[in-house]
Amino acid sequence: MVFKHQQFHETPPEIEIEFPAHAVLEGAVSDALASAGGIEATDVAVTASGSTITLTGVVARQQELARAEEVARSVEGVTEVKNDIKVTGDDQMPRGI
To answer: What is the CATH number of the domain that holds 45?
Structure first.
């Protein structure tokens, strides 16, 4: 058996994380929204900054907006939710006007 001396003398390359933590958290929240009842989440975008989730996009009803925030908060690892979702349906108008 022949042993060769190591020829690589530079700093070894750093192994990058295949999926950064924020991407994993974004995916978990997106999956939770997609499978949750009471919300049509196809027009909702999820972004993560650390453990803070920002929700953007549009929903048809006020109840969906509240449900989206509730679902996002329930995901493990989420510490804060910024809800910037807009309501585009009839439920955005106050009653009695």
So the answer is: 3.30.1340.30
pLDDT tens, residue by residue, 32-72: 999 999 999 999 999 999 999 999 999 999 999 999 999 99
Q: How far is 73 from 91, CA to CA, in rounded Å?
A: 23
* 17 has a pLDDT exceeding 60: no
Q: What are the residues whose beta carbons fall under 8 Å from the beta carbon of 43, sequence distance 6 or more?
A: 57, 58, 59
> What's the full length of the chain, in residues?
97
- Distance, in Å, from the CA atom of 83 to the CA atom of 97, rounded to the nearest integer, reads 26
pTM of the model: 0.73
Q: Does residue 5 belong to any structural domain of this protein?
A: no
Q: Could you list the residue range(s) of the whole structural domain that residue 36 is in?
A: 21-92
pLDDT value, residue 92: 53
Place of tokens 């939710």: 81
How far is it, in rounded angstroms, from Cα 88 to Cα 40?
12
